[in-house]
Specification:
The protein is mainly alpha-helical. The protein is 51% helix and 3% strand. The chain folds into 2 domains: 242 residues, no CATH class; 64 residues, Recoverin, domain 1 (Orthogonal Bundle). The protein has a two-stranded antiparallel ribbon. The protein starts with 5 loop residues before the first helix and ends in a 13-residue tail after the last helix.
């Protein structure tokens, strides 16, 4: 899990707390609907970790979907949503954000597969977050929401009768001020420790999580995500392979040569943008992408080739190491 300095994290978290709308506070006592029960802290944190593990399967596709909606009707809100998706999976620097923004604006004016490739190149230029990492921005947002949920009288402090069960069992450990309550900064420290604990239990297999259809979490390959600083990935350095896909270098036999060639980031799968970068048509990608996640895994390719072989003898394309080509369009008279 990526860590930030305590001061930076606290600043972000406080801003999230202050800026999160809370319409319930504006209502007089007893007015409107009855207050919602406090959030289930444990389930909420497990969901955050689960979303972090889903990110490698979802983010690239979601970015592409939102980008193509922008072509028809560009809005600042949708562009912000693109960046929220990017932050789920990728390391970002301020300069990188400027670069991505510039490439996005070019795509709005002149959309093309080539421009989409340039956008993803900018997005991926600083590498991915470690597997299972909950980004700092999401940590700040979620801790603020949880604190609000527990702080029923909205006084900025959690009294013992407002604390979730886990915090209630150890609140003295986190009560640095010794005033018998937990303020927001103290809750932030506790929250991060609780998040680390849940993440390690997921990595060890003690806590199970739901993954997208067809995804397999190989727990033996997942390193416990203890807090570590994420350094930029130097150009040309191989990134850590994803635990959900077959590892690069341990690919099953029978794969066509183009699979390794197209897997430019060597994560054991071919993404849609990697396919398009090679000039291949989308209608050649879709039949192999059986679960529609914009990723072709080794298993999907092998199953596709096996099904194709049953229909007719294997075509020369698969034997020659090149992907299936789009049928040439008939010339108009």
């Amino acid at each position: 899990m990526r860590t930030t300095t305590l001061a930076a994290w606290t600043t972000t978290a406080v801003l999230a707390l202050l800026l999160t709308p809370d319409q319930g506070r504006a209502q007089p006592p007893g007015a409107g609907k009855p207050p919602k029960p406090p959030a289930d802290e444990f389930r909420s944190i497990v969901r955050e970790v689960e979303e972090a593990y889903k990110a490698p399967y979802e983010v690239d596709k979601d970015i592409l979907d939102e980008l193509r909606k922008q072509y028809k009707n560009p809005t600042p809100e949708r562009e912000a949503k693109i960046f929220r998706e990017v932050q789920r999976l990728y390391n970002l620097t301020p300069d990188q954000e400027k670069s991505i923004t510039a490439e996005l604006r070019k795509a709005y004016e002149r959309p093309s597969p080539e421009q989409e490739t340039r956008i993803f190149d900018a997005i991926r230029s600083n590498g991915r977050l470690p597997v299972g990492t909950v980004p700092a921005s999401i940590q700040a947002e979620q801790s603020a929401k949880l604190f609000r949920s527990f702080d029923r009288n909205a006084d900025g402090r959690l009294a013992p009768d407002e604390m979730p069960e886990t915090l209630g069992e150890q609140w003295k450990k986190w009560d640095r001020s010794g005033d018998g309550a937990i303020d927001f900064a103290e809750y932030g420290d506790y929250y991060q420790a609780h998040l680390r604990s849940v993440t390690e239990r997921v990595a060890s297999g003690e806590i199970s999580i739901k993954l997208p259809k067809g995804a397999v979490l190989s727990l033996a390959d997942v390193r416990p995500t203890a807090p570590t600083k994420v350094a930029p990935v130097p150009e040309g350095t191989l990134r850590d392979p994803l635990p959900f896909a077959v590892r690069f270098g341990k690919l099953p036999p029978g794969l066509p040569g183009w699979f390794v060639e197209y897997d430019t980031d060597q994560d054991g799968q071919v993404c849609l943008y990697e396919w398009r970068r090679k000039g291949q048509p989308i209608d050649g990608f879709t039949p192999m992408d059986s679960n529609g996640d914009c990723l072709i895994t080794a298993d999907e390719v092998l199953r596709f080739l096996a099904a194709k072989a049953k229909e007719k003898p294997a075509e020369a394309d698969s034997e020659s190491g090149t992907p299936p080509k789009k049928s040439p369009d008939k010339k108009r008279p």
